[in-house]
Amino acid sequence: MLSIFVLWTILSVLQKPVFLLLHAGGVTQAWTVVEHGLGLDLSVAGYLTAIPGLLLLASSVGLRVLHTPRATRVMGIIMRIWIGVAAMLLSMSFAANIALYAYWQFPLDATPIFFITSSPKDAMASVQWWQGLAGVAAVAVLTWAAYRLFCLLLRRFEPQAYRPVAWWGNLAMLVAVGALFLPIRGGVTVAAINTGSAYFSENPRLNHAAVNPLFSFLESMSHQSDFASQYHFMDDKQAARLVAPMLNHTSMHATAGRDTLLTVSRPDIYLIVLESFSDTLTRQPNVTPHLNGLKREGIYFSRFYANSFRTDRGLVATLLGYPAPATVSLMKFPNKTARIPSLSGHLKRSGWGLKYYYGGDADFTNMRSFLVNQGFDDVVEDLDFPVAERLSKWGVPDHLLFRRVEQELAADHSHAPRFRVIQTSSSHEPFDVPYNRLKDKALNAFAYADSCVGGFVRYLKASGRWNRSLVLLVPDHLGAWPQEPDNFKSWRFHVPMIWTGGALGRRGVTGTYGSQQDIAATLLACLGIDHRDMIFSKDMLDHNSPHFAFFMMNDGFGIIDDSTEVIYDHKLRKTVVSRGPERAAFLAKGKAYTQMVYKDISEK
Fold this sequence. Notes:
Layout: H1 2-23, H2 30-60, H3 69-104, H4 111-118, H5 120-123, H6 129-161, H7 167-179, H8 181-185, H9 204-210, H10 213-222, H11 236-243, H12 252-256, E1 268-274, H13 289-297, E2 299-301, E3 304-305, H14 311-320, H15 334-337, H16 343-349, E4 353-358, H17 367-373, E5 379-380, H18 398-411, E6 418-423, H19 441-463, E7 469-475, E8 497-500, E9 508-510, E10 514-515, H20 519-526, E11 549-553, E12 556-560, E13 565-569, E14 574-579, H21 583-603
Parallel strand pairs: 1-6, 1-7, 2-9, 3-10, 4-5, 4-6
Antiparallel strand pairs: 2-8, 7-8, 11-12, 12-13, 13-14
């Protein structure tokens, strides 16, 4: 059993130099990484050794039935099946972590399972065929190699393994199996080992190299429930006191008497959700000329931030006016999202007709049930287009998606105001688009999406709809460009938000801090719609509202306003960015705010 435990540990340790070589530029820090990650490797080895340990314990207790030749063969078969399954799990977690890290910049978690189970096609959309083939081959080779090593080990020890032993041998085996509890839990301390135990450096890639990917995956799976226990920094009453001034306290009287910015009381609203755009991107020469022109034509929110790092999180923040939690996708829990007030729900009750357009699979990340809960009974997706128009891995390219919107608007003679959400997808890996203007593949894809937005705006102006149109442009999450940056930097979450359209009463730039969760309150206030139930969404244009941007990465949070910025790494248990006169108070507020978000989720 000790040999099995040691071999599992060695296989986990050997993953680290490979990760360092591929994602951290070299193996000079390999010893330090191995040292700090060893606790997680031992824990995984303990889990994987538990089944063989129990089999050996069962065979050593001296029961006559277990010492027949047939029983010995059965025991050997069960042992090999488990070794094969465990070898495959270790190999799959290693290969997935290596492959996905370039895209996600954090260790393997439960996200792939959620993506694959909701829509396998879209889950693989960012992967080239040869990458998928290479991944399958790598898992097969690694599994076979690990299995063969264990078979050699078993052939060496198996002849003696299943024989009856004296009572003291049975006792020793029982103690050995029970001792696996120590590496599994990480010792005898009150707190069990967790991925944060491997964090030791200011360089996140070294920390991520130290984390055992299989342990990280299993830990993430365990965090898909019991929300109230996550991010619990202080007593709930103390957290509530700190958070109270940060919430929306708009009264109906104030909402009704507010300057709406609009020349039309009930405009047609087009919310365009831009895949992966960053504010940095819009400052690159000749990439987003249409968005830059719309900045000048409308209102540009220059200090606006994405709430999170994935589309399923960003849509929650934008449509629910709700801070998207980092460690779990709320879309996975339709029973909870149905209980959260939403922007679309308020608009529908006030007479707006709702429709959602997306060129991909609406079941991806459980999006359909989420949208239906918010009142979108009419969802256009890839299957609503001819097969010939599903040209990309993500489904329908953006120009065909916008053309569908234009065609349906031309045929729509309803007098009720419209709320149309158009979610783009082409500016996403692998960045294959029917467009060829820029040499850089990623920038060319963003330029293509920008041209599609420009074309749709031209349509609205030419169709006679412009004067009653309000167009909101906002990315779905933090930007995908520049590539491979540090996620624990606020500029990563800095995204453009632009309001334009003929229904807008004035132009200019607003420097008020806010994030995606604040779109709902700001828009509803402009429309004179009561939104007091959306406590986490703040009106960015109301001078009496608290103004700050809040965002979450995996695994931490950031909060920023005019004078102070704090970013907290929950794995390191420390702030990694801290500036401004109120940074100590801001850290306490950020912790309290995060805690109350998770508490609120647990109560839904």
